[in-house]
Design goal:
Number of helices: 13
Mean pLDDT: 94
Radius of gyration: 19 Å
Number of strands: 9
Order of helices and strands: HHEHEHEHEHHEHEHEHHEHHE
Largest sheet: 9 strands, parallel
Bound molecules: 5'-deoxyadenosine
């Protein structure tokens, strides 16, 4: 297959419509995944601890201005209950995620992390948005292993258009990722695919940015319009975009995943829930296109319904979600990984 190196060659792959060539791209990514990481799929239990958010991201259903959703904050016991479930399902790690909730005391997070680490052999990933450096340090000192902060798009103009910053502080997530690595976290970034105004070339540059940042974890998920957001109008998205606009399709998302795998053979790459929501067989396809991680949502259903970053149909409890995912992993001819699934770095 043509080697994707330059932005132009990556764009050519993203626009490729010859099924045989597309299959060669998938095959290459799958082979690289197998050689670097084997067949095991890591399961990370996602716990959405609060849907309060002070930010106004133009695409996100839990943005501050969306008064339609009731807000919740899980208690310490509720969070630890979920963690116990993840442990009994033999997951290797948990991800604590929330909106940018200024009312959560950083000491409370530190205590929850410390308690988890004392009680379970789990890796702990935090995904709590853009926070003060001293909070990142505090959580690391208390045992957090990883931090996820998706930069959504590396196109600064587009980024700024859809991410009004906190007052007095620019929103530079790439800089924050570098800082998090400095503090000692394994770092995860990611993008959405098909944002209105996002071009093929911009997505190609994002794939290169993944490699440049040497991310431990990376993801690409299709943008899904949410009707209660400024960007939510379906009509903003041309169903058959021509020109430079990249579509928010499952097909192009899978190509981006394959290319990301080619550029970052050893990174941990999940199938995003957005892909599983948007595309039939999204999990199965994602595993075939370079992914080695799935993040089952283990938030109690009564809260999960309210963590509506984009519309989806949620009615399954934790065991159903788990069993469905276990079946897909088997169908893909893969196994469920044991252990925390830290990023492997060649030569270490
Ligand atoms: N469509 C797809 N993904 C979304 N996210 C937030 N809103 C949307 C949407 N409308 C993703 C972002 C965010 C993650 C938690 O969910 O990538 O970082």
């Amino acid at each position: 297959m043509r080697n994707p190196e330059t932005i132009e060659s990556i764009v050519a792959w993203l626009r490729e419509d010859d099924p045989e060539k597309i299959e060669s791209l998938r095959g290459r990514a799958d082979e690289l995944r197998r050689d670097a990481l084997g067949g095991a799929v890591h399961l990370r239990g996602l716990i959405e601890i609060s849907n309060y958010c002070v930010r106004q991201c133009a695409y996100c259903g839990i943005r501050a201005a969306n008064s339609k959703i009731p807000r919740y904050r899980m208690t310490r016991d509720e969070v630890l209950d979920c963690v116990g479930k993840a442990d009994s399902l033999k997951y290797g790690s948990v991800v604590l995620q929330s909106g940018e909730d200024d009312k959560i005391d950083p000491e409370w997070i530190a205590d929850v992390v410390r308690t988890i680490k004392a009680k379970y052999p789990l890796a702990v990933t935090l995904s709590l948005g853009e926070c003060p450096t001293e909070h990142y340090r505090l959580w690391k000192e208390n045992g957090a292993d990883r931090y996820l902060l998706k930069f959504e798009t590396g196109d600064i103009e587009l980024y700024n258009r859809i991410h009004p910053p906190r007052s007095g502080r620019p929103s530079d997530r790439v800089a924050i990722l570098r800082e998090l690595r400095e503090i000692g976290y394994q770092i995860g970034g990611g993008i959405m695919v098909g944002l209105p105004g996002q071009t093929y070339a911009s997505a190609a540059r994002d794939i290169k940015l993944f490699a440049e940042l040497d991310l431990d974890m990376l993801s690409a998920g299709p943008y899904i319009p949410h009707p209660d957001t400024p960007l939510g109008d379906e009509f903003l998205l041309d169903k058959n975009p021509t020109g430079d606009q990249i579509p928010n399709s499952g097909a192009v998302t899978l190509k981006i995943m394959a290319l990301a795998r080619i550029f970052c053979p050893q990174a941990n790459m999940p199938v995003t829930t957005a892909l599983a929501t948007k595309a039939t067989d999204g999990y199965l396809e994602g595993l075939r296109w370079g992914a080695n991680v799935i993040m089952p949502n283990i938030t109690p259903v009564k809260y999960r319904r309210l963590y509506e970053i984009y519309p989806d149909a949620i009615n399954k409890d934790v065991e159903d979600v788990h069993n469905g995912i276990a079946r897909i992993i088997e169908k893909a001819g893969r196994t469920i990984a044991a252990g925390p699934g830290h990023r492997i770095v060649k030569g270490e």
